[in-house]
Design brief:
Elements (H helix, E strand, L loop, with lengths): L6 H19 L8 E3 L9 E9 L2 E7 L8 E4 L7 H16 L1 H4 L2 E8 L5 E7 L5 H14 L2 E6 L2 E5 L3 E8 L2 E8 L8 H15 L5 E5 L7 H5 L4 E5 L3 H13 L5 E4 L3 H8 L18 E6 L8 H7 L4 E6 L2 H11 L3 E9 L9 E8 L1
Parallel strand pairs: 1-16, 6-7, 11-12, 11-14, 12-13, 14-15
Antiparallel strand pairs: 2-3, 2-5, 3-4, 5-6, 7-8, 9-10, 15-17, 16-17
């Protein structure tokens, strides 16, 4: 990660990402990617810090890649993190260093914040947490206006809520998202909005149905539901499915159903390889799927799911790994062509990138 945050260095790195994506997709005659940049600082809504002990004091620390945990980089502020995280860092550190009830055997701190101004902080310990800890932590949470969770082996004490609620304005409409502690959420909120709006524009208004695999808490799913007849979405994480169900209710979405299945399981269900009790109330035959949307993990889609994708007129694919994206497109290239392409700089100052393609049947 750069510590200079120079605009020229940012642009050089972004140009290199564009060139890399263009090269990976060149065998498939992809159009030039739209490029969506990131704020240069304060873009990360999540952050996790180890603590480094010096005498009786504990400081925020990070470690250089490949160096283990021998030489810490001590931090007072962290420019990539949201303004709210940076605002909370000093009073939290002062509190645990001033009071052993908070500081004793504390080894890690995790922040989850939102663009809408909410914060959840998790303090991780190598000791059992008692009522004295909860009393002291409750006073701290109230003073800082945050929710706070204490974790130790076999324990989870929640002060306030165990989630934050993000509000995103997507193409003129506000959507509200419950984001639980420990569940996946997009780290760069500003770029996340750009990704969702690009995907919604690529989808367009349709009169058929959409299938989404790997839907998480419904990040893309909720806006998509306003543009199609019906949505069927799948997700394997129980925590994310529970959040997605809460988000469906909170946003008044009536044409969206979530099934707790992996992409591989849903492929088996659609191919009638075996039935799933979790689909007993869903009539798969009643859906008229025109579009498949996927935002898979870094490994991309497995070969069977790629074969399933061939059935769809349109495949919208958002990827956090351009190499596996290219591998998947190679499997689909004989039946589908890339008609839109985008680069989203979700992770500035690193080599990582997020990308999106729309594939349409030849």
């Amino acid at each position: 990660m750069s510590h200079n945050y120079q605009e020229s260095e940012y642009q050089t790195q972004l140009d290199a990402k564009r060139a890399r994506l263009t090269q990976l997709l060149a065998p498939f005659d992809a159009p030039a990617p739209e490029v969506h940049d990131s704020p240069r600082q304060h873009y990360r809504l999540r952050a996790e810090f180890h603590l480094w002990r010096e005498g009786e004091l504990r400081h925020y620390a990070m470690f250089a890649p490949g160096e283990g945990k021998r030489t810490p980089i001590l931090l007072q502020q962290f420019p990539p993190a949201s303004q709210l995280i940076n605002t909370l860092m000093p009073p939290l550190e002062a509190a645990w260093n001033a009071d052993p009830v908070l500081g004793e055997r504390l080894f890690q701190v995790e922040f989850l914040t939102t663009l809408s101004g909410q914060a959840l902080v998790t303090l991780c310990y190598h000791r059992k947490l008692d009522d004295a800890w909860e009393h002291t932590a409750s006073a701290l949470a109230a003073r800082l206006g945050i929710s706070l969770i204490g974790r130790s082996r076999g324990q989870r004490r929640v002060i306030g809520k165990d989630h934050v609620t993000e509000t995103l304005r997507i193409l003129g409409r506000e959507f509200h998202y419950q984001q639980p502690e420990g569940a996946f959420t997009q780290p760069n909120g500003t770029v996340n909005i750009k990704m969702i709006e690009w995907a919604c524009n690529a989808l367009g208004q349709r009169h058929d149905d959409l299938l989404e695999l790997y839907c998480g808490n419904g990040n893309f799913t909720l806006p998509f539901a306003t543009q199609v007849r019906r949505v069927l979405a799948t997700e394997i994480s129980k925590t994310s499915v529970a959040a997605a169900q809460a988000n469906i209710a909170a946003n008044g979405i009536g044409n969206l159903v979530i099934a707790r299945l992996s992409a591989e399981e849903f492929t088996q269900a659609l191919n009638q390889v075996r039935p799933f009790q979790r689909l007993r109330d869903i009539d798969l035959g009643s859906y008229d799927f025109g579009t498949l949307f996927v935002d898979p993990p870094r490994a991309g889609m497995d070969p069977d799911t790629c074969e399933l994708a061939r059935r769809f007129e349109r495949i919208l694919y958002v990827s956090c790994n351009p190499e596996t994206l290219a591998q998947n497109i190679a499997q689909l290239h004989d039946t589908h062509r890339i008609t839109q392409c985008a680069l989203f700089d979700q992770f500035p100052w690193t080599h990582h990138m997020e990308s999106g393609v729309l594939l349409e049947r030849r």
